[in-house]
């Protein structure tokens, strides 16, 4: 990068270089292209060094200080017609923020100088030269102030870090050279305020990455030199890759040291980044101060609701998403006895909630617009449902059904159907098997139910289109004591999860003939294994009574779920995904503690 002529004063390996042609009465003192300024026009004072011919005395170091003192340098900001001086604090190998120096302004000439406390670099007597006498090779004046150009060199030192606002106050700085150091880290706001800077060199340092938008304040940048650095061309370099394509500045080649496929290649030549430069996380959004065993979500009239079963409080709490406060607030409360499940059913513009209870029978409530609350609509016969454990909603041939899995020996898992007036019992599935869960799924275009039980392996029922009933089809062998079965799809493939309290829980895949195991997850004490997805990110939430709950994420390359995050939920009973306002949430119900709402967030690794 070309450098203008000037005068250089050195101290402790640090150089401050000024480029300017001050006005002077003597013709012999006028600046000549390529020659240094006269000593009477610019005087650089340091503790043990004095410019030849200077009229000013050097200021000795104060007692106990030496030239190697931590505070060593001055940075200069010109304000016509006088020279304002700021200094740069050097602490160890870090370039820190600039501050106004203490001390007197009359150490040189009272009107033309500023002097730093020792050890120091004092710059005196720098008036402004009219544009008519400026050499033709000088840069044009910038802005309304006709000020001399400034160049700062911090070459061949041992700096490793440049902190935020390291060059604060140097508003008219045009040339900044920080070459041949050991700089590894540059803070995002290191160059903040340098809007007049035209040339920046960071050549021959130890840079492997630059923070996003580190050059955002450099509105006048013409040339950037990054040679002699080897960059990691991973996600953290993505912003630089895009910036190089958009900037009008001339930028040297940026060489990559990694990843292996990009080694010794130019960042400009990287065709694309082969992987997503984002990751995800789950962070606490809201804590509900009550216990719960299940959470269901539904949408009505462009609003998002959740229904939470609270057996200890004998409530089915309905919450609504508040678009202003950006949290979930209470909307209605359905009271009952030992409520273990609340399932919303939407039929046209009508909203029903099936409330499953351990005592007093189960009921169906309907939302009444005139009362703006849910009112009892229908009872579910006690003779069929004694100990409800799960409610599953599904639709076949445009007809609405739901099934209640009953876990008592005396109860019957029963399918109910909507008949335009209410829900009536449509089919009893089987008895004496203590069903714990029912899952509806489509297998090869046909409707099926999978019933899990504490007393037998899961059985698969298939919908018979002639009789319009579910009939036994097959079973999932060697899977005793399954608490729940949940289904999900990834890339058109059908999977199921099987939750087991004792032994390993399973992930299985349909292979056009049967479900085959693809992964076993240690799950002692597990009561739920829930699949869910947000924005093409697929997860499993495994809740255990004995340890931390675990969230697994699908690894598309290895084709397995890998442990992603652990969360603490006391006695978790269900996990439910809820989306609203382009935000995604994850409800974790707890039988012994607070109900927690986590938000699924996207983290940009290129930041």
Compact summary:
The chain has 607 residues and is mainly β. The protein has a seven-stranded mixed beta sheet with strand order 1-2-10-12-14-15-17, with no helix packed on it.
Describe the model:
This protein has a seven-stranded mixed β-sheet, with no helix packed on it. Strands 5-6-7-11-13 form a five-stranded mixed β-sheet, with no helix packed on it. The protein has a four-stranded antiparallel β-sheet with strand order 4-3-9-8, with no helix packed on it. A hairpin with a 4-residue loop joins strand 26 (362-368) and strand 27 (373-380). It is elongated and about 90 Å long. With 607 residues, the chain is mostly beta strands. The longest helix has 9 residues, at 238-246. It has one helix and 46 strands. Helices cover 1% and strands 50% of the residues. The model is unreliable at 2-90 and 97-148 (pLDDT under 50).
List keywords for this structure.
about 600 residues; disordered N terminus; 1 helix; 46 strands; seven-stranded mixed sheet; elongated; single chain; about 50% strand; mainly beta; five-stranded mixed sheet
**Biggest sheet: strand arrangement:** 1-2-10-12-14-15-17
Distance between the termini: 29 Å
Number of strands: 46
% residues in beta strands: over 45%
How helical, in percent, are the residues?
Answer: under 10%
Number of helices: 1
Q: State mean pLDDT (0 to 100 scale).
A: 78
Task: Briefly note the structural class of the backbone.
Answer: mainly beta
Tell me about the largest β-sheet: 7 strands, mixed
- Oligomeric state of the chains? single chain
Low-confidence stretches: 2-90, 97-148
- Global Rg: 37 Å
Shape: elongated
